[in-house]
């Protein structure tokens, strides 16, 4: 960041004050980059009472300024701590509870006359909180920190010469502090995008008012400057920079001194480009060219309701920010994990409508919807609106965290496959919705009669890069199974299940039919499942670590431990994979789903089936059969994989496979039974976390005790309710 001096220039020791390096009328503020050994980070008034974030608000400060300031200040604070830079917090707080000591200006300024006090102290934001005993906190009772605190005295004692200033409000407390600091002889740098004001105009006016007193940089420039700081020469000497050509006094042709009209041009070494800047805008413009008008920001709530909001594409483009897809919309946390599947009445005792979660799009999931081509759908994670931390209620985020733990703690990567079953209904001549045929398993009737539908589904899935391995008729009337290709991208497979189900529903509607995914539609026929297949690889290896042909079972020791982990937690896992009352109508003895806690090889009557490659004569994966489409696929996968990982990490020994002579523990026969098992499963509860486990159990128990009859559930699914 520095310009090397000529051989005639003096090298200044670190301890020598920066002012001695100033050449009056020649030197510029931009000639003196930040030096961690002689600087302090001053964070002005970023506190809970003053910094409310609301992405849904139309107010600039709540939806744009505050989130940007908080995010960038958090980054700067982390950098300062790593570089051992002194950090100083100022915050508004009176010395008396009745605020009689606050400034006259504040007493005349409405809300500012009633500051926090000793009995009700100010609170800092969770992500921007001082370290006790390490960082300095100064309460103030006026706009100027230098007027209402002993900040100058403290800075002199600390031998601070440079101030890096962030906070709020740009045109008030920040500008006042900067002007005072410059007058007192400090070198000041203001971070443009780590300051906030009530409006964009106020922010710009504040920057304009400070530009003659400080350097104004972006966060990226400051971070680069701090990280690039270097001490020249082994005896810790610093070589000052040459005067910048743009700041040398110049006279016009008429001999008039034009110094006061000069502009400050950053040096080439200070130029920083955000490489991602503009990428989201470019993506949105490309989508607009493709005819897309709306971005459907989508999450799957804890109980498998797809919740989405359509944001106009032009609105996002016109936000005029570098990342227009950041926090485009939000949802109350009670809507994410507090509402049963059948009503919008909260049943989670720990969640309220007051806490809001912002939705952060995962652009890798974005798809233009073939059945709604004016819309692109993107899957999101849910984040705390204030801290922007991932919400503990976010199930897609939970799956990502589980996969991260698998890589970092166990050194494996999972592979997953999914089999989606559904039934097709059509309005019959007698005016009733009935299955489209009375076909049986793998019969050609459904494939022949529904070829146009099947072809449309396949084409639209391929348009979304969803790979299909197999399609065939299943056992129930009008029933089909679509097998998605096995993949080592587990999050993408979960996304693909969601996209595939939505595609199947909409294509069926286009063809005058209803696609029904309910676990059971009639007690006289088979139901719909969503079987899952699992294996894993050691990181860095392409080989299937689940298999070992040298062992009797064909399963590796790790594979056996994974299966045992599943079996140990299987009664509790049902509360996630069979999460509705209807789910238990599909399973039981003789239903090819299993009814006891056991496993076997290629036995379709057990809940955990090891699949074998007959050509290779070794196990390839394990099938988990006690699952259906009423489950939240992200939550379900997170819990199943966690159970298997617990077995892996513990090195559990696999129990003998099922046999006619063995007696295995029975599985829960109802949703309430599985929830009772979950309440006793401390490991799975720890994976869920207290917030999600409390809400999930409460809502599912409400559903378990308020059973809907099969007839009403089917009628609702068919639109006959």
What is the topological layout?
Elements lengths: L11 E2 L25 E6 L15 H23 L3 E7 L11 H4 L28 E5 L4 H4 L2 H7 L4 E7 L1 H14 L3 E10 L3 H11 L4 E3 L1 H10 L8 E2 L40 H11 L4 E7 L5 E7 H5 L11 E4 H5 L18 E6 L5 E2 L6 E10 L10 H16 L1 E16 L5 E3 L8 H6 L1 H13 L4 E6 L5 E9 L2 H21 L3 E3 L13 E9 L18 H21 L5 H4 L12 E3 L6 E6 L4 E7 L8 H18 L20 H9 L2 H7 L1 H16 L4 H9 L3
Parallel strand pairs: 2-3, 2-5, 3-4, 5-6, 6-7, 9-14, 21-22
Antiparallel strand pairs: 1-8, 9-10, 11-12, 12-14, 13-14, 15-16, 15-18, 15-19, 15-20, 17-18, 20-23, 22-23
Helix pairs in contact: 1-7, 5-6, 11-17, 13-14, 15-17, 15-18, 17-19, 18-20
Question: What key attributes describe this structure?
Answer:
721 residues, alpha/beta, nine-stranded mixed beta sheet, six-stranded parallel beta sheet, 21 helices
